[in-house]
Design goal:
Strand order of the largest sheet: 4-3-6-5
Strand content: 5-15%
Shape: elongated
Number of strands: 6
Oligomer: single chain
Radius of gyration: 29 Å
Number of domains: 2
Order of helices and strands: HHEEHHHHEHHHEHEEHH
Distance between the termini: 31 Å
Structural class: alpha+beta
Length: 310
Amino acid sequence: MLKPLMRSCLLSCAVISAAYAADSKPVAIINGKVISEQDYDNYLKTLSEQNRNPAEIDTKTLIDNLVERELALQDAMSQKLDKEPSFARKLEEVRSNLLAATALNLYLEKHAPTEATLKQEYDRLTASKPKEFKAKHILLKTEDEAKAVIEELGKGKAFDELAKTKSTDAASAKNGGDLGWVRKNQVVADFADALLHLEKGKITQKPVKTEFGFHVILLEDLRDVAAPTFESVKEQIKTMMQAGQMQTYLEGLKKTAKIEILKKFDDKAEVTAPDAKKDAAQAATDAAKPDVKAEAKPAEAKTEDKPAAK
């Protein structure tokens, strides 16, 4: 909830901060209106508060954005857009979002997890070490075909040869059925369950049925997955804990509030497609935002797709 609220307030935050800018060295003058160095610094601060990295944006781009925003603002004022009812509604929505986001941020600041708390959560999350399995499989269309392969293996037939000649999984068949190292969350449930109950060096004595067909599985080896270091995942753990704290905060407010839901839950909300045109000010602000991609959690790292993992 927090990120969408704050993201929607990016432009307004910059405008509000500019209103309180102290007299300082001019950065640019647009139609007589001074863009001060304080305005520039406030804009940088706003970007930083939105989880952006201003260091990745060059000074010229930032100044261009401020100039474009000011030009759009001056044009809006010349058209008296601030007197439009629709603007008043949007301004009230921005104000509401900003206030709600500020309250959330303040709560998180007051309840920021300590280093010891983060370490305690890290220890809890890494207490049970997940396993990785080095496995091979032969995929057949029918149960009878799978039983026949198990019988041949029992008579001494080489697993690799049978995989190459009989497996319907072409990708692994050419490698003797080799799937490499996999974790239980990378394969379908029944396949994972079979791996968990197999001894090292053993073959499943009954066909394992999945949505892909019937598998004969060989467990070649298994090992513990090394946990990431505390420092490498500390920020991710903090984010995860803060998400829980936000939920606690909101649930606490609900408990002490008198809430009446008047809209029936079976009513269908009509959602209209967003306007393809953004206003010039928002577009200028968006241009300054570098893409921020979420880092994958260490425990969710994926290997290349394998048939059993679909």
